[in-house]
Amino acid sequence: MMHRIIGNTVVEWDPEVPLRVTFHGETGPAKNRKKTSAYVDFSELTSGYTDNFLINLRDFIIERCNQVKIITIPTEARSVQKCLRQVMETADFESKIGIIDETFLLCLSAVKGQVSTLHLRYLKQMFNSNPFSPIFARGLHRDDFPTHRPKKGRNGEATDRILSKAMNRAAVAYTLDCLDTAYAEGKIDIGHYSFVNLAFSVFARNESYRQITLSDLKFDETHQQYFIDIVTAKTRQYIPNKARYKLSDTVGLLLVKQRQHVIEKYSYLVAEGDTEKMALFPARQLNKDGSWRHTYAIENFGMYRGAVQFGQGYGAAIAKKLGGRITLGNFTLRHTLGTLLAQTGASAKTIQAVLKHATDTTCKHYVDIAFHGLMFELSEAMQPAFTEHLPTFLNFRSKSDSVIIEKRITTEDTKSNQWEDVGECGKEIVCENAPIVCYSCFRFNPCWDADHGINLRFVEQEIEYMSKLGKPFQHMVERAKIAKNHIVVVMNAIDRYREVMNTGEQT
Known about the structure:
three-stranded antiparallel beta sheet; 17 helices
């Protein structure tokens, strides 16, 4: 076997089959590095491209180890391979193609309707990373590479993508209500239910969720507070750090229950001293003998191999169990929070800090959407039930902001017998049923520095009390559950916003 070492990555291939390459390396935070590998094969292109070109392409992909993670390399390779295959199949070349030049790009432009936006973008991105590679002809410019024309200006492609996925606040509350019902009826288990509640609380990526271990869930005895440490993904760091998120009591208790479930169901698969290393959301596919189906899970304490596999095991699996009534894609939740924060007037830098982006490029799209009033186009692909609700957006204020007494929304903390200023009403006078009904109202401007847990605890007590009264009060229980989910949506967005505000980020 031939070997090359690129940074901390080992690349190997058989001299007899030089276009099949394997990459070996490590990923994850400093204290929990995991061995990983990736595989690339350009052999299928030999009928349309010269051996010299394909060897140069292989070397180009190998050098990408200096710029991207191992798990990204197969994605880039498949995308470029798709573009090359489409041009090869046009049969416009009398001999094998030996370079990407203007003629090649003209052929690609002719068939770009059969190539996805993602694949075209990766080819252009590869040129931008090294335009002097021997696979590219001299004199090419980045604008020579074909792309799909965006629908809404220069950033229209990203805008369309966000608008198609993000949900309004009523849709989020509806989704949580569906999940509550499904869990109560036994359609989803504690693993799926606790994951969704965590996802709606911290809005991280699947790549981050899959790496959470049992030891990452913390409880501060002094302050009686739950925390969770999550690996930040796509930060452009070779060894990413962990971010600590504060959790509500509800989410914290659910994760404790999930932790116990994982120990009871899967601990026999790891050594006695390795229980804390197990994935909090482990791979769910098991063989008949009770072992994990995939080698990666066996070697990494139940962890899924990648974000795609994790999404299939959790987000996609939950949506399937609920009959396709909801969408729980990784980007759906993050786009939802990003657009809601932009509507409050938060800057791209603040949204970047909340969502843990490496740059504020994507966050600028959220601000652009809010600025141009495109928020009302959110979620056209969502279920028709969502259209019954008016789009409702958060408009944060502080308890220290002055507000007239008729518009001030307060609540009483029965534990301390103190009144808490939780928000401002957009009407001239506060409703009689405030503050509980306020959380579903688009006129509600919540205080980001208030304790909204007071109202959440009140509603949870109401649910518990009325549930004991039997069937005649069931409609009141359902109404209270919906109110609870609206409060949770607001609290989760505020928690992430508060973390950034408390660090001095400017909005």
